[in-house]
């Protein structure tokens, strides 16, 4: 395997791993919440967890799927935040799972030149690699918001890393 393909696969595998971790954490949060809590907002200037999931699906589709696969950008961003019902917890989980799966497939299938090509998304100019990084960090960012709101609602540790020694030292 050539070094370019090896680097591409390493990038895509690590982005996919981080996306799967965020999905795992979001599912842990949702398992602890009622259908009503999913749509509850902490205050008027904040979003519900359901809105954040819709927003993540829109963003991942725009940056990670449509842009990298050269598909038409059909995102209607404002609807991600204005929607206040219409999806169950199970439907939101499925939508997020499918979106993440489709994005990971788009990352893996993209030829190297597509990962290096610059393109404009939401007025920003990034390569396909830049879009992969954006999708990964944006998902992680909102996963943290979902975790915080869940902790506030449930007043307990979420146990994301139960059984893992997070104090272990680095090994060479």
Topology:
Blueprint: H1 3-31, H2 35-39, H3 49-66, H4 77-82, H5 89-109, H6 112-116, E1 118-121, E2 124-127, H7 128-154
Antiparallel strand pairs: 1-2
Helix pairs in contact: 1-5, 1-7, 3-5, 3-7
If you had to describe this structure to a student in words, what would you say it looks like?
With 172 residues, the protein is mainly alpha-helical. The protein has one domain: Up-down Bundle (Four Helix Bundle (Hemerythrin (Met), subunit A)). 65% of the residues lie in helices and 5% in strands. The chain has seven helices and two strands. The chain has a two-stranded antiparallel ribbon. It comes from Flagellimonas chongwuensis. This is DUF1572 domain-containing protein.
Structural shape? globular
Total number of helical segments? Answer: 7
The share of residues in extended strands comes to under 5%
Radius of gyration: 17 Å
Oligomer kind: single chain
- Identify the CATH architecture: Up-down Bundle
Mean of the pLDDT scores?
96
Largest sheet: 2 strands, antiparallel
Supply the CATH superfamily name.
dinb family like domain
CATH topology: Four Helix Bundle (Hemerythrin (Met), subunit A)
Percent helix: 55-70%
The CATH class: Mainly Alpha
Class per helix and strand makeup:
mainly alpha
Distance between the termini: 25 Å
Q: Within the largest sheet, what's the order of strands?
A: 1-2
Total strands: the figure is 2
The number of distinct structural domains comes to 1
Topology as a string of helices (H) and strands (E): HHHHHHEEH
Low-confidence stretches: none
Protein name: DUF1572 domain-containing protein
Organism: Flagellimonas chongwuensis
InterPro entries: DinB/YfiT-like, DUF1572
Pfam families: DUF1572
């Amino acid at each position: 395997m050539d070094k370019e393909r090896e680097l591409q696969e390493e990038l895509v595998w690590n982005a996919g791993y981080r996306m799967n971790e965020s999905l795992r954490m979001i599912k842990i949060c949702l398992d602890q919440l009622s259908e009503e809590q999913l749509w509850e907002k902490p205050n008027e200037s904040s979003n519900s967890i359901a809105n954040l999931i819709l927003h993540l699906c829109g963003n991942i589709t725009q940056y990670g799927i449509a842009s990298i696969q050269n598909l038409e950008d059909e995102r209607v961003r404002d609807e991600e935040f204005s929607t206040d019902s219409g999806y169950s917890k199970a439907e939101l989980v499925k939508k997020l799972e499918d979106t993440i799966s489709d994005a990971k497939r788009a990352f893996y299938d993209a030829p190297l030149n597509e990962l290096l090509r610059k393109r404009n998304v939401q007025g920003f100019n990034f390569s396909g690699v830049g879009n992969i990084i954006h999708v990964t960090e944006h998902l992680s960012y909102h996963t943290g918001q979902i975790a915080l709101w869940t902790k506030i609602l449930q007043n307990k540790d979420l146990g994301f890393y139960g059984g893992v020694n997070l104090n272990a030292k680095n090994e060479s």
